[in-house]
Amino acid sequence: MKKILFIFVISVLAIACGGQKTDTANDTASTNDTAAATLTIDFQAMVGDTNNASISSNAYLKITGSYGDIDGKIDAATGASMPSRTPDLLNKYRSADNNVLNNRMEVSMGQFLLFGTANASRYIDDGMSGSGIAQRTVDGTTGPKVTGTGITKGDDGVITIRFVHAGGKTVDPYVFEMKSDANGIFQIGAGTENFKRSETALTNDFDFNTDSAILIVDKAKEGNPYWKGDLQATFENNIIKINGTLTEVK
Question: What pTM did the predictor assign?
Answer without folding.
Answer: 0.86
